[in-house]
Design goal:
Helix content: 25-40%
Order of helices and strands: H
Distance between the termini: 72 Å
Structural class: mainly alpha
Shape: elongated
Number of strands: 0
Number of helices: 1
Largest sheet: none
Radius of gyration: 19 Å
Length: 69
Protein backbone atom coordinates (compact mmCIF):
# COMPACT_ATOMS: atom_id res chain seq x y z
CA UNK A 1 0.00 0.00 0.00
CA UNK A 2 1.33 3.44 -0.94
CA UNK A 3 1.81 6.01 1.84
CA UNK A 4 -1.04 8.14 0.44
CA UNK A 5 -3.37 5.14 0.49
CA UNK A 6 -2.38 4.42 4.11
CA UNK A 7 -3.27 8.01 5.09
CA UNK A 8 -6.65 7.71 3.39
CA UNK A 9 -7.27 4.37 5.12
CA UNK A 10 -6.34 5.93 8.49
CA UNK A 11 -8.81 8.79 7.96
CA UNK A 12 -11.57 6.38 6.99
CA UNK A 13 -10.91 4.33 10.13
CA UNK A 14 -11.13 7.46 12.28
CA UNK A 15 -14.46 8.36 10.68
CA UNK A 16 -15.78 4.81 11.07
CA UNK A 17 -14.83 4.79 14.77
CA UNK A 18 -16.46 8.19 15.25
CA UNK A 19 -19.79 7.09 13.78
CA UNK A 20 -19.68 3.70 15.55
CA UNK A 21 -19.64 5.59 18.88
CA UNK A 22 -22.90 7.32 17.90
CA UNK A 23 -21.40 10.77 17.44
CA UNK A 24 -23.58 12.92 15.20
CA UNK A 25 -21.47 16.00 14.49
CA UNK A 26 -17.90 16.34 13.43
CA UNK A 27 -15.77 19.36 12.72
CA UNK A 28 -12.17 18.82 11.72
CA UNK A 29 -9.54 21.52 11.82
CA UNK A 30 -5.91 20.83 11.04
CA UNK A 31 -3.60 22.81 13.28
CA UNK A 32 0.10 23.21 12.78
CA UNK A 33 0.46 24.11 16.47
CA UNK A 34 -0.44 20.58 17.65
CA UNK A 35 2.18 17.84 17.55
CA UNK A 36 1.64 15.34 14.74
CA UNK A 37 -0.86 12.69 15.73
CA UNK A 38 -2.30 14.65 18.67
CA UNK A 39 -6.06 15.05 18.71
CA UNK A 40 -8.11 17.60 20.60
CA UNK A 41 -11.80 16.90 21.18
CA UNK A 42 -14.39 19.41 22.33
CA UNK A 43 -17.86 18.51 23.44
CA UNK A 44 -20.91 20.72 23.32
CA UNK A 45 -24.31 19.99 24.86
CA UNK A 46 -26.30 21.93 22.27
CA UNK A 47 -26.71 21.50 18.54
CA UNK A 48 -24.94 24.68 17.54
CA UNK A 49 -21.45 24.52 16.13
CA UNK A 50 -18.62 24.01 18.57
CA UNK A 51 -16.69 27.25 18.88
CA UNK A 52 -19.36 29.35 17.17
CA UNK A 53 -20.61 32.62 18.70
CA UNK A 54 -23.77 30.75 19.75
CA UNK A 55 -21.78 28.04 21.52
CA UNK A 56 -19.65 30.65 23.31
CA UNK A 57 -22.69 32.73 24.33
CA UNK A 58 -21.54 35.64 22.17
CA UNK A 59 -24.19 35.71 19.45
CA UNK A 60 -24.36 39.23 18.04
CA UNK A 61 -27.75 39.05 16.32
CA UNK A 62 -29.99 37.94 19.18
CA UNK A 63 -32.94 40.16 19.91
CA UNK A 64 -33.21 41.49 23.45
CA UNK A 65 -36.35 40.34 25.30
CA UNK A 66 -39.22 42.81 25.31
CA UNK A 67 -39.60 44.72 28.59
CA UNK A 68 -42.86 45.68 30.24
CA UNK A 69 -43.03 49.45 30.60
Amino acid sequence: MKPEEKEIEDILNILDDFTARGESRLKIQAQESLPQGQVEKRYHLGRCDVGSPWARGQAFDVLEPERDE
